[in-house]
Each structure stands twice: as structure tokens, then as C-alpha cells.
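Hi,

Apologies if this is the wrong queue. I'm a grad student, and the batch job for Protein lplB from Gordoniibacillus kamchatkensis produced an output file that my downstream script rejects. I'm not sure whether the problem is my script or the file. Here is the sequence I used:
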Amino acid sequence: MISFKWRRELPLHAMILPGLVLVLIFSYMPMFGIVIAFQKFTPFHGWFGSPWVGLKYFEEMFNRPDTMQVVWNTIYIATMKIAAGFIVPILVALLLNEVNRAWIKRGIQTFIYLPHFMSWVILGGVLVDILSPSEGIVNALLKAAGLKPIFFLGNLDWFPRVLVISDVWKEFGFNTIVYLAAIAGINPTLYEAAIMDGANRWKQTLHVTLPGMLPIMVLMATLSLGNVLNAGFEQVLVLYSPSVYQTGDILDTMIYRMGLQSFQYSLATAIGLFKSVVSFILISVSYWLAYRFANYRIF
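Support response: The file is valid. Your script probably expects a header line. Output copied below for reference.
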């Protein structure tokens, strides 16, 4: 019986094998590199020849004057992205649910979903042109209204807002489809019963649609907790400049500069390990909350 079952499932295991090999090569093997955080690492001596220094670079990380500011930037930007990325798709899904013509609804879904498939290299170039203080369309409209132009990508106050707004613009279409799927799964008889009780469209939304969406809303909110330290490396790297480091620099870009530009491999690895440990704890808590409040589990 076992031998027959194994022969029957062997093609399925063979299909999984290439994926497992890629995961081992690109996800698990690089984890041995965390030893660099505890060494005075040089590429010439490698892992085995570099001297062991213990927690020296973790102490240096916390003693740096800009570390706490970068941590705050990361948490602030990521939290604002999570909050906006949670609220906007729900509102858009509720509005699209009220559109009766199917071709209009499909057209809007396609239009708002399209930026999700574009890389930040492309969207970054688009934003640089749109927000240009001299030739950008946004500042052209501000000038036409009699207002002063704003250097959005070079202003300390505006740069985090640009990150949040542009991230929502890119991703809210995908999350909107998730909520539309949740709305589609609501039993139509609940709406019929609400109409029989005299509920208008607003009350149907309030007492039928939103409660029906609640499980997926709780799930999406709890799973997003694990991204508190993920403020969007590619987006920030494409858009930021030294003039906005004070409010726009995040842990990932700090690691990039320390490791690949300043060649401080040990310090960069220590910062990356700190971020990974905190993220692991937050992800574990988020999945526990998802199981506790949304009955969602991976295994």
C-alpha cells in the first residue's frame, strides 16, 4: 500500500523538487551569512578567517546617532502604508459594488489593478516627472491656482507622504479585488431580507455588506502586522536622495548604503539581523492573531 502510494505521488514530489532547490539555495544557504554580524568581516579572510568580535557591531548600531531616527522612519512610513492600504481598498470595493453595469466595473478594476504589475523603477520615473517642481503636472496645477510649487521629493515633510500615497496608488487595486471577492461571497438572501425590512442601500451596506466582509478584513489587518518594519525598499531607493534622509531613510536603505556603498559588511549584517528578528516576532504574532480572530492558519 505504501509502495503504491509513493509511486503514485512520485511525479508530484518531482514537481516540488526544483522549487525546494531554489528555496535552499536562495533562502536557507544565505542564512549562514548572519555570522558576519559577529565578526570583523573582510572578504579576503572570509567567514572562517575573520576575527570574532561578539556583539560589538550591535552596540555600534544602537550607539549611532541616526539609528533611532531610521527605526522611527521605518515604523512611521510602514504604519501609514498599512493603515491607508487597509482603508482605501475597502472604500473602493464598497463603491464598485454599487456599480450596476458589469463592463464599467470590469474597466475600473483593470485600470486600478494595472499599477500593481509595474515595478518601482517604472513608477518611480513616472512620479519624478509628475512631481517635478519645474515641469511636473502637479506643480503646474498649483501654479495655475496661484500657489507656490512644492519640491515633493526633496521636502522633508512631503517625502513620507509621497511614499504612502504612491504605495497606496500602486497596491490598492489588488486588495480591492480581494474585498470584492469577499462581497461576492455574501449570501444574496441577506440583501433580500434587508430589503423586505425596508433597508436602503446605505443600511444594506452597513448591516449586510460590512459584516460579511469582516472576516477577510480582520485577516488582512492581522497579517499586515508583520510588515511594520517593511517600509518598501525598492520604492524608497528609487525616490529618495540625501536631502530627505532625515525623514525618508529606512532600515533597508540604511543596510544597502552600509553594506554595498560603504563596505561595512558586519554593521550592515547586524542591522539586517536585528530587523529580521523583530520582523519574525511580529509575523509570528500576526499569524497567531489571524488564527485567533479570523480562524486562519497556514498548516
